[in-house]
Amino acid sequence: MHPGRSRCHSGRVSDDQSPLPTHEAPAPADPTHAFGLRVRQWLEENATPVRGGVGEGAAVLDRDVEKALVAEARVTQRALFDAGLAGLTWPVAYGGQGLDIDHHRVFWEEAATYDLGSQFFMIAFGTVGPTLMQIGSEAQKRRFIPAMLRGEETWCQLFSEPNAGSDVASLQTRASQDDDGWLINGQKVWTSGAHRANRGALLARTDPDQPKHQGITMFIVNMNDPGVEVRPLRQATGDAPFNEVFFENVRVTAEDVIGEVNGGWRAATTMLMNERVAIGTMGERRVGGGEFESLRALATGNRLNADPVIRQKLVGVYISERILGFLAAQVQAARRAGREPGAGGSVAKLSRALLAGRVGAVGAAIAGAHAQAWPADSVGSDRWARAAMSMYVLSIGGGTNEIQRNILGERILGLPREPQVDGNVPFRELVVGTQRAG
User: Fold this and answer.
1) Looking at residue 100, what is its pLDDT?
2) How large is the C-alpha radius of gyration of the chain?
3) Residues 192-247: pLDDT tens digits?
4) pLDDT at 53
5) Cβ contact 102:32 at 8 Å
6) Is 275 a catalytic residue?
């Protein structure tokens, strides 16, 4: 043996020779990889790419056109269900797939450039469905959740009233009990998608002798009942996504109560928390990297991408989007760990609303005169005018920015609550809206 090539008894080569190669265990396969390939193949074979791509604005949506789009979305949603791609993180017992949040993320990464019509099911999937799974009865879960996932039913949320907006607990819509259940009478307003909804989750006053937060019940209502009248509310953009809804002797049963009778405030806070999470994390479905990419494309097209002021504004949008992405991931991680997002949903929702305002303002600044007037035959030119006019929608819907800041102050910073002089007063004794203390 060569004097410089001796081996020790352990079989290792001495320090004057390179060690023998070691065989490390292969890294575990990514469980979502094969799933992502399956999603990609299904989308390529069955889904329609988003028309127009990044930066393309949608025209005013006529309700007849919208009706046709909803019908298409129902077909697509049923196809997703049949392919095992609906309700990815929802329990198998109710028609879901029982997968983790990573599969959900991978799905939307693959689906970002496809039009699945998912916006028509946002309230069902993001708000009502999670609430039913948290506090609904077993019969309600088995009846309504599979129908949502199959695209058979769309939902709306019936909370706000003309005299009970931010102070939802001041609502006056009443539910009077009779031998066969309850009769609902009253009015709601600013109800998104009520004109295309099959079902609604409604808050009504069931006991005016209790304080305003304690005498409310949440019901499931049939939006096709003859006692339900839906009237559109036309916006400055020309769209009518919101409605006012009137109820005249609409009958519901005990099986339609979500949660408990007179326990509607708990049901409402649960649903609002889910709504804030849905709004705060909805950026996962945006096309081409979010609104920053749309704005950058607009700036490039207008030859303003080298302007230092515009560049600074674009950087602000990019930073806001990145921060929101991290917040959304944190909220989703809490859900994955089985924790309620709590005030984290308000953080994400507030961030989303502030980002929408920033995007609308920057878009109008870059578009210039084209955000105010454009040729009638110019497809998508109204994008930034519409963005500017609707930039404050998210600062109101789902709880105003001021409400979110109050929640953060109280639940995260530990600041004292503001005084509430009517907290223990029976509702019928309050001067609220059209009601006069009697």
Assistant:
1) 87
2) 26
3) 999 999 999 999 999 999 999 999 999 999 999 999 999 999 887 778 889 999 99
4) 39
5) yes
6) yes
**Contact in structure between 283 and 328 (CB atoms under 8 Å):** yes
The residue among 50, 48, 144 whose CA lies nearest residue 90 is 144
Task: Please check whether residue 203 is in contact with residue 214, taking contact to mean a CB–CB distance below 8 angstroms.
Answer: no
Tokens of 109: 């990464």
Give which of 179, 181, 180 is closest to 204, Cα–Cα: 181
Catalytic residue, candidates 244, 275, 291, 321: 275
Percent of the chain at pLDDT above 90? 56
Provide the pairing of β-strand 155-158 with 199-205: parallel
List, in order, residues 6 or more apart from 112 with CB less than 8 Å away: 285, 286, 287, 288
Can you tell me the distance from the alpha carbon of 293 to that of 39, in angstroms, rounded to the nearest whole number?
A: 25
* Across 248-272, average pLDDT: 95
157-262 and 54-153 share a CATH fold: no
Residue 70 has pLDDT above 60, yes or no: yes
**Predicted local confidence at residue 327, as pLDDT:** 85
Top-level class of domain 157-262: mainly beta
In the predicted model, what is the mean pLDDT of residues 317-338?
Answer: 82
In which residue are the tokens 């303002």 written?
Answer: 361
Sign of CA dihedral 91, 97, 101, 105: negative
Burial of 413 (0-12, 13-18, 19+ CB in 10 A): exposed
> What are residue 218's DSSP bridge partners?
203, 258
Which residues, 6 or more positions from 44, have their beta carbon under 8 angstroms from its beta carbon? none
Q: Which amino acid does the sequence have at 82?
A: D
DSSP lists the bridge partners of residue 114 as: 49
408 CB-near residues (< 8 Å, 6+ apart): 343, 346, 347, 350
pLDDT at 342: 73
The 3-state DSSP class for residue 177 equals strand
Please identify which residue in the block is written with the tokens 């600074």.
312
Q: Using the structure block, give the residue that is written with the tokens 């996932």.
A: 149
Q: What is the pLDDT of residues 86-134, one digit of tens each?
A: 999 999 999 999 998 889 889 988 998 899 999 899 999 999 999 999 9
Class level of CATH domain 270-411 = mainly alpha
- Annotated domain spans of the chain: 54-153, 157-262, 270-411
Q: Residue 46 gets which letter from DSSP?
A: H
Q: Which has the closest alpha carbon to 153: 95, 89, 212, 236? A: 95
For the domain 54-153, what is the CATH code? Answer: 1.10.540.10
Give the SS3 label for residue 309: helix
Encoded tokens for 431:
């001067």
- Comparing C-alpha atoms, which of 318, 336, 331, 241 is closest to residue 282? 331
Which residue is it, tokens 């993320």?
105
